[in-house]
Amino acid sequence: MKLLRILPLLAIASFLSACGGDDEGNGNEGAPVVNNNSNKNDALHAGLEFPRLRNGNSTVVTHTTSAFGTTYSLEWDHKLKAQRWTCYYFTKDNKVKKWQRSNWKGAMWEGKYWTGDPFQKDPDVPNAEQPNVTGEFSGSSYPDKGFSYFQRGHMCASEDRVASQDANGQTFYMTNMMPQGDLFNGKLWSKMEAFVRDDWGRKITSASDTLFVVKGGTIDSEDKILCRTRSGFIVPRYFFMALLLKKGSSYQAMGFWVEHINEDHSNDKLSDYMVNIRELEEKTCSKAGNSDGIDFFCNLPDDIEQSVETMDHATIMRVWDLNNK
Predict the structure, then answer these.
(1) In this predicted model, what pLDDT tens digit does every residue of 169-191 receive, in sequence order?
(2) How far apart (Å, rounded) are the C-alpha atoms in residues 68 and 66?
(3) CA 270 to chain centre
(4) Contact 49/55 with Cβ under 8 angstroms?
(5) Burial of 122 (0-12, 13-18, 19+ CB in 10 A)
(6) Residue partners of 315: CB distance under 8 A and separation at least 6
(7) b/e for 258-269, b at 16 or more Cβ within 10 A?
(8) Is residue 11 classed as helix, strand or coil in its secondary structure?
(9) Mean of pLDDT over the chain
(10) pLDDT digits (tens, 9 = 90+) for 296-310
(11) Pick from 188, 155, 178: which is nearest to 71 by CA?
């Protein structure tokens, strides 16, 4: 099994920018940068988009293109047969649109002509650990939980990677999918994705601006698992997004935490689901009071990480322009 672990150069550049200057390390000229919870000695996963790696049963898989670098990375748990998170970033260079999803009909890619979306198994994860391309999600019905079937819900959205055919195609690997109800996937989740891509993607105006994104669903404890598909693949009870905006030398962060309910909540205010990053980390813990949650943006210097993770809600509402969303 050949795993693609390509250094995300643009993200690393942002990391070095954050850590290299004395005035950005801890606010004191000449003081060393302090980071006690980073992915230490791991240059492949030092980008600001990466949470702290779980390791153990997990492997990080990164998909790339020659023209636009990293498409996305994910942490795949081989025992649970599920991804824990997907992370990626928007820059001025990779936000261009040179492909659209409708182009797949009749398109040639990876040695095959496609009649529609190129859903397929991830070549860098064992086939047996991945759900079947068709039938597994759509053939799983849980009416008592409000789900007549599930869709293949993208974590890195197809529309987030339209800079090239290759990048868009990689978003259709089954490791990038989690089971989602159609009224969840196509409504509230889609609204959140549009907020990230369109509202905040427009803030990326210079080469020094980057929007880092982490998305996923809960897989690590039974109380945060809604159910399982017919072949035993996990259906998360909650989904989340963690966002970090680096604009110039400033950083802002926020998160979304949303219950997986198959109802149309697209008219809800996004602010109803907003949390700060510290709260999001606590919510991803297996039990209250545990420290085994996802450690987002761990590669930031500690003082910057502490500041952006603990932003109060009023500041997040103002900075991220959520008052009317």
Answers:
(1) 999 999 999 999 999 999 999 99
(2) 6
(3) 18
(4) no
(5) buried
(6) none
(7) bebbbeebeeee
(8) helix
(9) 90
(10) 999 999 999 999 999
(11) 155
Residue recorded with tokens 């979306």: 117
- Give the pLDDT confidence of 51-108 residue by residue, as tens digits: 999 989 999 999 999 999 999 999 999 999 999 999 999 999 999 999 999 999 999 9
Pairing state of beta strands 274-275 and 107-109? Answer: unpaired
Over 60: is that where the pLDDT of 3 sits?
no
SS3 label, residue 318: helix
Q: Is residue 9 within 8 Å of residue 69, measured between CB atoms?
A: yes
The tokens for 162 are 């339209």
Phi-psi region of 122 (alpha: psi -120 to 50; beta: other; left: phi over 0): beta
> What's the pTM?
0.90
The answer to whether residues 49 and 69 touch, using CB atoms and an 8 Å cutoff, is no
Contact predicate 82/1, CB 8 Å: no
Instruction: Name the nearest CA neighbour of 295 among 287, 304, 283.
Output: 283
HSE-up (13 A, CA, CB side) for residue 56: 8
Give the chain's length.
Answer: 325
Is the sign of the CA dihedral 103, 104, 106, 109 positive or negative?
Answer: positive
Nearest to 211 by CA among 240, 233, 241: 241
Amino acid sitting at position 318:
R
8-state DSSP, 283: H
